[in-house]
Amino acid sequence: MAQLGYEPNFQASNLASQNSRTIGIILPVSEKEVYENPFYLEAIRGISQLCNKRQYINTVITGESEEEILQVIKTMARSGQVDGFIVLYSRQNDPIADFLYNEGFLYVLVGKAYTHANQTIYIDNDNLLAAQEATEYLYQMGHRKIGYIGSDTSMIFSADRKSGYQTALLNHGILPRADYCAEVITASEKDSAPLRCLLSLPDRPTAVVVSDDILAATLERVCLEMGLSIPEDLSIVSFNNSLFARLASPQLTSVDINSFQLGAEAATQMINHIEDPGLPATKILVPHHMVERDSCCPPKN
Fold first, then answer.
1. Nearest Cα to 235, choosing from 208, 255, 199?
2. Which of 270, 272, 279, 282 is deepest in the core (most CB within 10 A)?
3. What does 106-146 look like in DSSP terms, one character per residue?
4. CA distance between the termini of the chain
5. pLDDT, tens digit (0-9, with 9 covering 90-100), for 116-153
6. CA angle in degrees (0–180, nearest 5) for 186-190-195
């Protein structure tokens, strides 16, 4: 099929539903981890429920490389199969977002736009403020040695949460320490070395802000292996308020970023712009709130 240049005629195969409209949902490049993250599932649920109400179809696009995803996008766009794309992430120097912008395709980002912000429709949380509040929560509990564990900082949400953490410390005259910050790309056994390094410091943190519940669950496992007790030896505040936060032991205090609403708002803006192309690029902030559980307590000393 590739050698002959074959491309399926999606329009012909969908003659029975000519009045339907389709939205492509683009997930980040991943071999496996992205499919295990409840954030994406909740966002897709929000998109799907809104699309059902407005009688739109949605289809998920992902792959193991940027080239694979771009090829799918090009095929769908050329065949007229899709009216617009919702990108469920925002990354620095992302060739997929750049392609959509340069080709003039309608797309909505879930996350803050890294480039072309004034021309990009995006739905986001105030991640700076959320991380600042999470850090302030630990400070008011008595913690002064507060660390930060984040995912890949090329992801805009993670970079913003780290900045919010640093801002909160600076507001109290505490200089952020580089050795108190760890970056973990995937929450797997082989990538737990940065966590062990952080927890092995002679004056290790007494509390940490973690950018994702999955990372926080991994941190709990590493603490157990190292003989550290949560929250007595280490308090944890994480993000997403997902199933991982509720299943962890102890259950995690977590910032709920309203993943479902992020997806529903993205679908709403997409459909509004499909039906009224003259609308200006919209920017929407979805509110967050903290859910307190058992993973935090005042420091021992």
1. 208
2. 270
3. -EEEES--SS-GGG-EEEE--HHHHHHHHHHHHHHTT--SE
4. 68
5. 999 999 999 999 999 999 999 999 999 999 999 998 88
6. 75
Dihedral pair phi/psi, residue 298, rounded to 5°? -60, 150
DSSP string, 256-294: E--HHHHHHHHHHHHHHHHH-TTSPPPEEE---EEE--S
Beta-carbon contacts of 135 under 8 Å, excluding residues fewer than 6 positions away, are 146, 164, 165, 168, 169, 209, 237
For residues 196 and 226, is the Cβ–Cβ distance under 8 A? yes
Radius of gyration of the chain (CA): 21
**Within 10 Å of residue 65's Cβ, how many Cβ atoms?**
10
Q: Report the alpha-carbon distance of residue 289 to residue 159 in Å, rounded.
A: 19
- pLDDT tens-digit series, residues 74-130: 998 888 889 999 999 999 999 999 999 999 999 999 999 999 999 999 999 999 999
| pTM attached to this predicted model | 0.89
Q: Phi and psi (nearest 5°) for 177? A: -100, 135
Amino acid at 243: L
Give me the residue label for tokens 């007229």. 80
Contacts of 236 (CB under 8 A, 6+ apart): 207, 208, 210, 216, 219, 220, 230, 252, 253, 295, 296
| Phi, psi at 94, each rounded to 5° | -90, 115
- Does a cis peptide bond (omega within 30 degrees of 0) precede residue 194? no
Question: Is-contact 160 131, C-beta < 8 A?
Answer: yes
Per-run averaged pLDDT (10 residues), the chain, 301 residues = 68 48 91 78 96 94 92 87 94 93 95 93 97 98 97 89 98 97 75 91 97 94 96 97 94 98 98 95 97 96 74
The whole-number pLDDT of residue 180 equals 98
